[in-house]
Amino acid sequence: MKQLKKIAVECKNIGLSYDGGKTEVLKDITLRIEPGEFFALLGPSGSGKSTLLRLIAGFNQHQRGQLLVDGKDITGVPPYARNIGMVFQSYALWPHMTIWDNVAFGLVERRVDKATVKQKVGAALELVGLAQYANRRPNQLSGGQQQRVALARTIVIEPQVLLLDEPLSNLDKKLRVQMREELRSLQRTLGITTVFVTHDQEEAMTTADRMAVMDKGIVQQLGTPAALFDYPANPFVANFVGTTNLLAGEIDQINGDTVRFRAQGIGDITLPKHPDVRAGKMAISFRPHTVKMQVGDSVRDGAYLWLNGAVEHTEFLGEFTRYRVRVGDSLVTADQAHFSGMTPFAESAAVRLGVDATQIRYLAV
Ligand SMILES: Nc1ncnc2c1ncn2[C@@H]1O[C@H](COP(=O)(O)OP(=O)(O)OP(=O)(O)O)[C@@H](O)[C@H]1O
Hints:
β12 and β13 form a beta hairpin. This protein folds into two domains: about 10-240, P-loop containing nucleotide triphosphate hydrolases (Rossmann fold, 3-Layer(aba) Sandwich); about 245-365, CATH 2.40.50.140. It is α+β, with helices and mostly antiparallel strands and about 375 residues long.
């Protein structure tokens, strides 16, 4: 199949409510999805991501703001008149039709001539690796294959934009990983602007060029997966994208190069000063893999924040061991890379946790 024209999708101050304005589900959503981008909407259940996706498809109507596709405001244009393809969680294949007829359906409906239908359906099935299954029915295919049929059926009509609503959630873990790679390479081949809804941060991070993290109908942060992981804007994003340690507290002293952070349940900690630091309530966040663990009496290194604790819980995960370490009244998570022959720290061992100071983020609360 040929590369498709790359189109931008833009939401400008979009607001959507149900129940005559009582339930506000989308609040002032402003974002621009660049032409050809693979964009993920990531958020917990009820955050509004499906509502936003369905709004782009035309199934939901917003009351405020504008929706621009290729620079044109398509607010009010019905779904069938938008050239937008959507793959649903359930795939929604026709059970009584062959794979070929399922894929051809949208073209036949649009009264495309027979020769073109043949050529396009053949190319779409080829693209998803299902040419040899054209005569089967959906129930004769595996979940992953059905998913590919759903994709082929959507892209065959050459939509301007591809919308994917949790398309991998019905598949087992291994197949999900395989399919997300396939999805990503298919998207690259076609160059189609793609919006992918998921509540799975790993899925969003591994596929998306950029993503929007949503919570309570608000875009909490927008950026590349690495930017969101490394520089979360607030505690919600820090927790939702990856695993983190969040310590709440208050900065009550700002000295030359350091600040005093009164961490709840831990006590006073001296931290390096940073442009984001202000006196008052704050949280600090650091990732478990940026913490190194040492035995209680080892030498301190000034580039680290040192916390004394005792191992409370150990989880061996193969590549690394995840330790939950009691520090004061808090539990700190520390991931230590595992190599064969290593002896893990025992439960209740006294340890010192060294947090790389460059990896600590200060977050407003
Ligand atoms: N027709 C409706 N009437 C009233 N409230 C609705 C309606 N549809 C959705 N909602 C509410 O809007 C909010 C957002 O729903 P939405 O389906 O967009 O969330 P989501 O982030 O996609 O969650 P999930 O991952 O569970 O699908 C929810 O609180 C939901 O209860």
